[in-house]
Each structure stands twice: as C-alpha cells, then as structure tokens.
Design brief:
By secondary structure, the protein is an alpha/beta fold. The protein contains 34 helices and 17 strands. The relative contact order is 0.06. The N terminus is likely disordered.
C-alpha cells in the first residue's frame, strides 16, 4: 500500500508555475483563483493554500485581496485558526456589502471554533445585515446561528430555516443549504426534518450535476439511517454513494472514506467479515491518499485523530485478529505482521499530528523491519476497546497473546500505578506486578529460552506513560534482566549499529537560568504549563518533597502573577545545582565542547552545530513535552527552543555532514496523565534527525540524574556497550543504592530510537 504522497508533488509544482504565468493576466488570475476555490471545496486544502498564497502577491489589488480572504477561509477549514484570523480580518476590513458579509460569517465560524459563542453570534447577526437581498448568504448565517443554539431549541430554528430555503433561487446553493440543515437536524434527532432536507439536497444536486453535494447528501442519509438502526438501508445508501463518488469527475476521497468506513462497520456487525475487511482496507487507502488534507484539532489535549481516524485502523485490526484466531503457521504469521503494519500507520499519523507536519515523519521512515536483531524481542501492544492484544516477535518467530481487559480498565490501572511511581510513594509493587502479568509474563519462557537481552517496546496509548523497566515479576524489575528500549514505531526505527570511533560531543547545561526565564514567563508555552486548571504534577508528594528536582512544571505552577519578584524566584527555583557537576564530569569523559550557563545560548548552539562534527548532543536543561509539538520546548540560557527551532539547529551544514547519533535531554519532563506527551521525546529525535534520544518521563532528582548520566556515558565509551545496555547498567547502580532504589529515581530515564 502506498502510504503517503510526497511533500511537494509534481502536480503542485505545475499549478504554481501556472500561477506564476498568470500574474500578468487578470483574467487568467481569476480563473486560477476559481480553480483553487474548487480544489478547496473538493477537500484538497494543501494545494488550494499554495495557490492562494502565490496569488496574494498579484499586481491586481482585487485579486490579491480575494486570495488573502480565500486563504484565510481555507486555513480555517484546515483548523489552523491562528493563521486564519489575520487574513480573514484583513479581507473583512477591506471589503463591504455581501463580500464583507461572507468574511463576517467566516470570522463567526472562527469564533465558534474557539468556543467564543457571543462573538460568533455577533458576526452572524452582522452578516445578515450586510447580506441585503442576498437570501442565500442570510440563510447561511442563520444556519450557523442554529448550530450554536441549545439542543432543545435547535429543531424549531432549523424548521423555520428549512421553510425559508425555497427563497434561494440557485439550485446548487439551495442544495448546499439543505445539506447543512439536514445534517444539523440529524444531529439534533429531528429525523423527519433531516430526511426531508437531505433527500431534497440529493435531488437538487443530481439535477445540477454536482456530484460532490449529491454524494455528501447520500452519506448524510446513510448516517441518518444508521443512527435509527436501519442498517440495511444505511448499507444500501453507502454503497450507492460510493459508486456515485467513484463514477464522478474529480476526487471525492474524503467522502469515500466515510462511506467505506460505514460499510465496514455495518458489514462487521452482521458477520460479513471478509467484505467488512475489504471495506476497511479501502477506507484506509483513502485516508493515506489525502492524509495531508485532513484537519486535526485538539480539545482538552486530545487529538481529533482518535475520534475521526483511529477507529478505522482499529476496525481493520480487529477483523485481521479475528481471522488470526483460526489461522496457523505461515498464515498466522502473515496476519500478525499485517496487523502490525496497519498499527504502524496509526503510529505515523500520531507523530504527524503531534508535530503538526508530515515531512519530518516521512523522512524518518525506514520501512517496517523485515527481521529482528538476534538477542532482541519486540513487544507490540495494541489496545482495543474490549481487550489488549500483544504481538511478540523475536528471531524465532512471531506470537500473539490476548488479555480480556477493556481499555478503560487498563487506563485506570496504568494511571494509578504511574501516579504512585512519579510521586515516589510506596506501594508500587502491586501495580508493577499486575502490569507485568498482563504485558510480559505470557512470553517470559520465550525470553529465557531464546536468550533475549534487549526488549524493544512500541507502546500504544496510555502504555506510553508506563515506565516499562519497572514491571515486576515478584522478585526482580524487568530492567534487572533486560535492557528496555521505547520506540514510537518500527517503521521509524533503525536497528543498524554505529561505529563510535572518533566521535565528539557537545555538552551543554544550564545550572543558573538566564534571560530565558523572562521569555518563559511571558510566553504561551510557559502559561500552558502554569495553567491552574492543569493537572498538578505528582511530584508534589512522596520522595520528591525532600529532593532537589529538575522540575519545570511544579516551579511554574506554584508561583503567582508576573512580577520582578516572581521572575527572581522562578530563576531560583529553576536552578539546577547538579548540572555543573554533570557537565564537568561528562566533559572530562567525552571529547568535544563544553557550554555552561551564559555560553549555552541559541546563537552559540547554532555556531557549534554549523561548524562542528558532533555525534552526541547532551543538553542538561529544563524541557517540557506537552500534548502537541507546539506546546513542547527546551530551554537555553537566553531563549526557548521549540521543536521547529530544534529542527533548524540540527539541520545545519555541520550536522548534515555528520548526523547526530544520540541526543540526550537530561532534565525534560512529560505532561502527567497525557499519553500524547511522551511522543515529544520521539518527536525531538525526528526533528533533530537524531538516531536516538535519551530522555526522561517525569521530573528527575538532581543527584540521581548526575549518577545515571555519568555511568551511562562511561559504559558507552569505555565498554562499548549498546545505548540500551549502558542505560540499564546505570539504572542498576541506583537500584543497588538503598537511598535511590525506588523507581522514582531510576525509572524515568528511557532510550527512544536506535538502541545499538
């Protein structure tokens, strides 16, 4: 299966060349503008945005302004709200009449997306005033008003609007309006009103020869019947919609994936698993072909990917595993690997959504592994709604174990356990044992008989928050017998061993914070961590109370409003006394360059990476990984380094000549309870093009970090061990120290990526 389109297709290049050629021809520019609008309406958002952006520089002021407004509308459709707003406001302020009404509606939609209901309603009311005799525009504003009404009052509003839709003279515009009313009525449970409008929309669109609107109406009717339990009718309409979409000119992939998904789940519900599997496979093929144009938005730290796309992948996975129940031998192995390949598409999509872009993830893909390194075992859990599936592969073959535990129960168990460990509280052994029994024990004998030394774990969902090294068999922690590696996906992991001869390291640390504290205090990044509504870090209790902690979140959350006094106190709280000793010790051990405090600036990092040849970049400074890449950063002495900033630093000429082998972030932390936040560690590796990252899941003890880092590098350099084994040895040192043997001290350190 072809997974993704290239980041910049030849087709797109041709379109831009056409835009360039049209710059001197106003008529050609108008045609190009219309072409871009059509692309947007067909769901090709990226292509439309590129054209609108090029047309903004037109010599014709009217074309430039129109392109600006259309680009804003397209960005809004793509859920890129902050980018859309200034463009829409420019178009709104520089137009009048019905044109201004259009942009008032778009600004109302933007306010509605941000949950700013009063502001949205004001824009919709203004649009109705500005629309004048344009009844279609007036009704669009009224439909959007109804969308914001309470569920109880919405049916009456929609019924009144439905009555007035006959005033729209243009058939296609009336069809689009009826489609919107029908969809809203369906969501409100007004079945008859929904059916009437959706059926009229279908008929009008067919008469107008507009396939997209016709197919959308068929999809809406099928959804209506499914909600009413009329499965046979829903399946029939979905099939009719798919056939109409495939026969239509243009590309209707975004609607096709919904129609195929519905067919898949309806067929699965009636036991037609082979047909259902085929439908799911078609839906996934459609997703992958338009992945860059599917808007992703976040609410409460949760990506809409999980609600809109992940269920499709999981539906196919469920069917493949049901087929595997009856398979044996090579057929079973093939089905398990196929299942894992589909799960890999989820992993790739999650990272793309986290980072907010596709190309970095695409460039990191090395293809799904065709073999397993001797002495290594892969643990690949897949959390389904009603069970946990573990796919285990080693050089000897591939196996599977199913645990009948629902996803919510697993989530509760993992969050309870990780909360205890992150806080440094006693009583963690019970949870560690329960999770060992679910995840590891089914394969314990295989691990021993095969002489496995390294466990490569690709965690799913809430299992990303789990410190796997702490799983307890009743006598020992997992790390006491195996080196443990965490990976975001097999297709983004290289198993190639690297030569360590002649490497040098850039060792940088911030023991005493500088001007960055003021920027952190004023930035939205700092504000998001310090938000009083955010969950409090578990490190406010237990062993963390009496330790010097490398904790950014607890320091920000415990202070009041900005003031010189607050800045001074924040500098004091963010000081990392152990970092100087860590930097000094590692500088003596590793050849290279040492930066500390005032020399550890973004400018100096730029210069060093540009002219240097560093295989290791060790950054001993605060870092935070939130729900998205935009909420994630690390701190230099003078400024914040975002994910994109890290990418720019580590794609300079010096790094291109000698890519980073290991990026170490020895004072980073992930947001507590947010199973997306650990993706930031993998995201940092991808952005930096580093083969592996040594990071931490929660705020670490200053003295424990010093010991782990020193022992880790000593083993790496002196003994020539793998990175995973070097970390294991460092953790064992702490386990053997009765003052540091609680998992709170040694468990947050994880290797992500290449472990060799």
């Amino acid at each position: 299966m072809s997974i993704f389109r290239s980041c910049f297709s030849a087709f797109m290049l041709g379109l831009l060349l056409a835009v360039s050629a049209a710059q001197a021809d106003p008529q050609a520019q108008t045609q190009t503008l219309a072409r871009a609008v059509a692309l947007r309406n067909d769901g090709s958002l990226q292509q439309a945005m590129e054209i609108f952006n090029a047309l903004r520089t037109s010599d014709d002021a009217a074309t430039g302004l129109a392109a600006t407004g259309e680009l804003g509308a397209t960005l809004l459709q793509a859920r890129r709200h902050d980018e859309a707003e200034p463009l829409l406001r420019t178009a709104y302020e520089q137009t009048g009449g019905s044109e201004r009404a259009r942009y008032a509606i778009e600004l109302g939609n933007l306010a509605a997306a941000r949950r700013q209901v009063p502001q949205a309603l004001r824009f919709y009311a203004e649009a109705q005033t500005l629309a004048g005799v344009d009844s279609a525009l007036t009704l669009v504003a009224r439909i959007n008003q109804a969308r914001l009404a309470g569920r109880a009052e919405r049916p009456a509003l929609l019924a009144a609007i439905s009555h007035d839709l006959a005033s729209i003279g243009e058939p296609l515009a009336r069809a689009r309006a009826r489609l919107s009313v029908g969809t809203l009525a369906s969501e409100a449970g007004s079945w008859q009103l929904a059916y009437s409008n959706l059926d009229q929309a279908r008929t009008l669109a067919a008469q107008a020869g507009h396939a997209r609107t016709e197919v959308e109406a068929l999809d809406g009717l099928a959804q209506l019947y499914e909600a009413q339990g009329r499965q046979a009718d829903a399946l029939l309409l979905s099939r009719h919609g798919s056939a109409r979409a495939l026969a239509a000119p243009g590309v209707l992939t975004d609607i096709l994936l919904r129609l195929e998904w519905r067919q898949g789940r309806l067929l699965a519900a009636k036991g037609a698993n082979d047909e259902a599997q085929a439908a799911y496979q078609r839906a996934i093929a459609h997703i992958e072909s338009i992945r860059q144009d599917i808007p992703i938005e976040y609410e409460g730290g949760r990506s809409s990917f999980r609600d809109t796309l992940e269920p499709i992948y999981l539906g196919l996975i469920d069917l493949l595993l049901k087929k595997a129940d009856k398979a044996q031998g090579s057929d079973l192995a093939s089905l398990l690997r196929r299942t894992r390949d589909i799960a890999e598409l989820i992993k790739q999509s999650e990272l793309q959504d986290y980072l907010g872009e596709r190309c970095s993830v695409e460039s990191a893909q090395s293809g799904v592994q065709t073999g397993v390194t001797p002495g290594t075992a892969i643990f690949y859990p897949i959390v389904l709604k009603d069970r946990i599936e573990m796919i285990f592969e080693s050089e000897a073959g591939i196996l599977r174990h199913t645990t009948p535990m629902d996803a919510q129960s697993l989530r509760k168990l993992v969050l309870l356990y990780t909360g205890i460990v992150r806080a440094g509280n006693p009583g963690y052994q019970r949870g560690a044992g329960q999770l060992y029994d679910i995840l590891i024990r089914p394969f314990a004998s295989d691990l021993k008989t095969q002489g496995i030394r390294t466990l490569l774990v690709v965690p799913d969902g809430v299992l990303r928050l789990l410190p796997w090294a702490t799983l307890f068999d009743g006598k020992q922690f997992l790390v006491e017998n195996y080196a443990v590696v965490i990976n975001s996906g097999l297709s983004m992991t290289s198993q190639t061993a690297e030569s360590r001869k002649g490497f040098s390291a850039l060792i940088a640390g911030m023991a005493e914070p500088g001007p960055v504290v003021e920027k952190l205090s004023l930035s939205s990044l700092g504000a998001s961590i310090a938000d009083p509504a955010a969950k409090r870090s578990g490190t406010a209790a237990g062993l963390a109370q009496s330790r010097a902690m490398r904790s950014l979140s607890s320091s920000l959350r415990s202070l009041g409003a900005d003031s010189p006094e607050r800045i001074a106190e924040l500098k004091q709280r963010l000081a990392l006394p152990g970092v100087k000793a860590e930097v000094d010790a590692l500088s003596a051990l590793l050849p290279g360059t040492r930066l500390l405090d005032a020399t550890f600036t973004t400018g100096r990092l730029h210069d060093e990476f540009d002219r240097g040849s560093y295989r290791i970049a060790h950054l001993a400074t605060h870092g935070f990984f939130g729900s998205t890449g935009k909420q994630s950063f690390i701190m230099a002495y003078d400024d914040l380094i975002t994910m994109d900033g890290l990418q720019k630093l580590l794609q300079l000429e010096g790094v291109k000549k000698a890519p980073i082998e290991l990026l170490t972030l020895s004072a980073c932390e992930t947001a507590e309870g947010d199973d997306r936040s650990p993706l930031g560690i993998a995201g940092a590796a991808i952005k930096a093009k580093a083969k592996s990252v040594l990071g931490t899941l929660w705020p670490v003890s200053d003295d424990a970090a010093q010991q782990v880092m020193t022992k880790f590098y000593n083993s790496l350099v002196s003994d020539g061990t793998s990175k995973a084994e070097a970390l294991r040895r460092a953790q064992l040192v702490l386990i053997g120290d009765n003052k540091l043997d609680h998992p709170f001290f040694w468990a947050p350190f994880i290797i992500v990526g290449n472990w060799r």
